[in-house]
Amino acid sequence: MSVQFHRGVVRAGSPPTVQAVTVSVVIPTRNRGALIHETLEKLTTVGDAATEILVVDQSTDGITAQTVRGLSAKDERVRLIPTSTVGSSNARNVGWKAAAGDVVAYVDDDCIVEAGWLEALTAEFFDPKVAAVFGRLTPYKKEERSGTEVGMKASEERAEYTAPVPPWWVGHGGNMAFRRATLSAVGGFDPLLSAGGQLCAGEDTDLAHRLLKQGREIVYAPRAIAYHKHWKDWPAQKRMERAYGIGAGAQFAKYVRCGDSWGFRLFWAWMWQLGVRRMGAGFIKWRNPKVVYLGYCQLVYPWVGLLKSIRHPINRTHTVYLDG
Predict the structure, then answer these.
(1) Which of the listed CATH numbers 3.40.50.300, 3.40.630.30, 3.40.50.2300, 3.90.550.10 matches domain 9-228?
(2) Whether pTM exceeds 0.70
(3) How far apart are CA 27 and CA 190, in angstroms?
């Protein structure tokens, strides 16, 4: 089985310079006080271009708040935003609504940004046509590849996306930025498609697809580098991969219900690329049963997500599930 796509990609060496923008950095977090300390410390060291650094805290303990307040005493741009919401999508939405910048850049609480990260993201928004930018995301400390990596986008070639493609080609939520006006216009992130949400995962790829369907431009900027810590043990990674599959199925089912035929194409592309091909790579390339199992998850759990999503109503204006 093969699923073909027209990439709709134009590549160029560097973005045009048109107008300056201000940038707010948002870090969603929940009960990861030990992880976020290094993320924030590095960000305050290299993120001079940020107007503010907002930590949206859904934690049920006080460790994150204590960490953030300690750093905010040294850098007044750092601000804690406690919230009773649940799910990374809701935290991301709280963040952009509270942000003062023209652009809202997101980094996850288990990621470490490289020097020049924010400047590379921001430079792309000098072109007023650009609605969103995704940066390069690779394993922390350049760990040797094993086939079990998650959230990885390592290409060193800049790309401009102007038409729908499989949105997991564009980039990942641990390193991305959007115009705040764009987020407002499209209704922000889907509240159910996220870690901790009812439909488990996928708010980053979902928003990328919705933007491309509207004809908005997304840039992949490889000079905006962040490193992802692979800190989960094997049982936790299995749970995460199952969540990815559930979120993907729910995401694509939503498109079909809204009359978007891309939902069918993406469903089968996901199962082929992340399911069948990954299982094959696990057998042939990696010779690793863990990789085979992760591919198996992407064959089975999208169907679970499809079934779980049916009972949730949809806001068809913005193509997002209704919370509650």
Answers:
(1) 3.90.550.10
(2) yes
(3) 17
